[in-house]
Amino acid sequence: MLELRTGIDILTDVGGIESIGEAWNIFKEKMDPGNLAKLERIKNEEALLKIANAIALCEPDSVFISTGSKADMEKTRQWSLEKCEEAPLAMKDHTIHFDLPEEQGRIVDRTFYIVNDREQTSVLAKKIARDDALAYVKQYMKGIMKGKRMLVGFFSRGPAGAKLAFPALEITSSTYVMHSGDILYRHVYDHFDEQLARSGRFMTNLHAEGPNRPEDLPNARVFMDRSWLTTFSTFCTYAGNTLLLKKGNHRFAVDLATYYGGGEELSEHMFITGMKDDGDLTWFAGAAPSGCGKTTTAMAGTDFVGDDLAQMWIAEDGTLRAINPEQGIFGIVADVNRTGDPHLMKCLREEGTEVIWSNVLIDDRKVPHWTGNEEEHPEEGLNFCGRWHKGKKDAEGKEIPISHPNARCTLRCDAIANYSPALGAAPEGVPIKVITYSGRDADTMPPVWVAKNPDHGVVIGASIVSAATATEVGATGVKRQPWANAPFIPGPLADYMGTQFEFFNSPNFSERGRPILAGLNYFLTHQARGGKGPELLGEKRDVKVWLTWLARRAHGRVDAIETPIGFIPKYEDLRRLFSSIIDKDYPYDLYEKQFAIYADKILERIALQSEAFGKEKDLPEKLFRVFDEWNTGLLKLKESNGPVVTPDQLIAATV
Ligand code: SPV
Ligand code: MN
Hints:
With about 650 residues, this protein is an alpha+beta fold. About 35% of the residues lie in helices and about 20% in strands.
């Protein structure tokens, strides 16, 4: 259940401005004539009231309205340099921003959904009662922008006019946050009212970094008010906590798709990319938890559209359409290098692209450096914990890496050579033919396998796991990561899962429009397959082969081997693709290591998943039915072939 427009609208309540007349009074008080004139173009009273109440609450000295014009964006960037939220780098249009050492990722322990009494939330989410959130906002946000300038931007999450594009306001005292918004999202100031009238809803995001001191961090909060589609973010700067156009509004989009999408809409933590092969352009959307290769997969495409989020729906023509709500990437830079990411490296190392770096090392010549870039590293410089030298240890005696594992680069997609600008901006979206689910799985699943039917595909998504990554502060161990979207699912998992089953089984897909669903895993290690060491069996460039094989499979152009968990590629097909696409030998013994079915491992994994899901309430029966089918098949296979079943044995078993 999601109760829209129910309960106190905290922003309005605390701001206290209820009429448009009062709103204009406060605008006149805080804005110079130029900014006032800009705001006059916006007619929607609800949006104007949100802005007025944000001003009344935060009490900035002045307010800047960004129209998204070049001049306005340049002003924001200049202010950011003047305020030292960013510093210039040697490369033209490159800047560096540092977050506090204690805030290098999403502060999940301080992130809450604001809920009404009767509303259920996901067991994986933290929630706060509306009254408690109201009390926090009153205590900590009143006057939080005194002495500062507030910046207001009018954005669209997605190409204007797209079915699932939502207009959104970003209101912040941070020039870094607005500068990031300028790069990552589309301004629609010129036609904000029109977009709002079309979509019927908009989202509001209010952020204030406050004094930005480590001692304020315990009081930092990220609140998402589900009922009023409004976010509040305080005392923090990391974009995942502050630029809530991104994950804050993604959470609302998940809610809207689940509760108002009629089983025909999804909002996913997925890249969108296209692969040209044999004269066809096949579109993929794929989920992966943060830090598990989502950007890499997106970049492997010939026509990339997005690396983080996808708004998807079933179109009238029976195809699955997807748009990227963003227009830029906020990508992890660790392990980005010329070998694996030539297009991205060009933007990062050659002039011509506007880039905001965060939490990398800056050397004395003002050049950024990061882990895994395959370049010489300097001995010292400035990084996320201040002055750094090689071998420097933290308080616990652990060596501090040159860059934080969650260090990022922010840039527009259209700077990247394989971006597809026309299709990326198309309101009709791109027709997705392949859905992939991947995690960071060192020892169980093969590199690629295709679900036998939509139900199996949904359960592959439900079963994503990953080793902990650096995007969440304090995360350790191996985690279950349903659809890689769990951190962003506000309501009970059962509701979200129900929508997944409904969507992928929809009778409204045409025969050609219905996507195939697949699992992907780049993280199998030598030691998990009878060899030594934690090194990976595969490498980044192999991704192109996996995607191309999936494209061919989606078009019925390659045969496959049936296993209890789905279809896996045949050796000859892969060998040919390895050779023609990335000019690489693909020995049979590597294939065997990658695609043998490790039945005991998979059975263990299924047991772990069934047990964990068994604790949740009201989950669709189908989930457990699919686990049972996999179990039965694997046990039978194991009985006749032992616990490790090679592809040849699988072929023999199915004939
Ligand atoms: C992720 O962690 O999934 C990201 C970055 O894409 S953040 O903005 O922190 O969510
Ligand atoms: Mn993400």
